[in-house]
Every structure is written in structure tokens, then in C-alpha cells.
Design a protein that fits this description.
about 120 residues, mainly alpha, 4 helices
């Protein structure tokens, strides 16, 4: 017959239960706390978004720097910008401006305005 001391039997259950509780205490903040894996993952995504935004801003900055250099040094570029943005024309030129966004003709628009009055 196998006789075991009565006092050693509860330790077989208490020690593993204590180890499980200690592990759960250490794992809970890792999963749900402020330094959790979820927070780390969301911060990693935010970092990649901000990195992409920085890259976009750097490309925009370099394009604007190039445009500034052209505006300072190239009279032909300055003329092109003035003609396109301000609708300036040279002597003996006629400027036609088409509004591509509308599908109605000018006659239909004027007819609509007359009816509204």
C-alpha cells in the first residue's frame, strides 16, 4: 500500500494554481493595458501613416521649391503661369474660356436666369 503524507497533497494543487495566477497577472497588462500588444499595433499603424504623410509633404515641398526656383529664374515659366492662372493674353490673341464642368449651354443658363426673375 502507498502511503503519502497528508501535508504534501495540497501543494500539488496550490503550486500550479499559484503559477497560473502569477502568469495571468503578468499577461493581463500585456494584452489589455496601456503597454499592450493592441496599443503597440495601433501605434505602429499610426507611425506608418505619419511616415507616409511626411513623405508626401517632402514631395510637395520639393515640388514647391522647384516652382520657386523656376519663378525666380525662368521668365518663360513666369509668363506661362500668368497666362494660365490669370488668363492674360498677348496682343492680337483671343482667349476662349470653356466651363467643362457644366453640361448646359450658355443659352439654357440665360433662359433659366430670365425665368427666375
Amino acid at each position: 500500500m502507498d502511503l503519502k503524507p497528508v501535508s504534501s497533497l495540497p501543494w500539488k494543487f496550490i503550486l500550479p494554481a499559484a503559477m497560473i495566477l502569477i502568469n495571468a497577472a503578468f499577461l493581463a497588462p500585456l494584452l489589455w493595458g496601456s503597454g499592450s500588444l493592441y496599443t503597440w499595433h495601433s501605434l505602429k499603424e499610426r507611425r506608418s501613416e505619419l511616415s507616409q504623410e511626411v513623405d508626401d509633404l517632402n514631395r510637395k515641398r520639393s515640388a514647391l521649391s522647384r516652382e520657386i526656383r523656376l519663378l525666380k529664374a525662368d521668365p518663360a515659366y513666369v509668363e506661362k503661369i500668368i497666362r494660365n492662372r490669370l488668363n492674360y493674353v498677348k496682343k492680337n490673341e483671343i482667349l476662349y474660356i470653356f466651363d467643362i464642368g457644366t453640361k448646359k449651354s450658355a443659352w439654357e443658363e440665360s433662359d433659366k436666369n430670365v425665368r427666375a426673375e
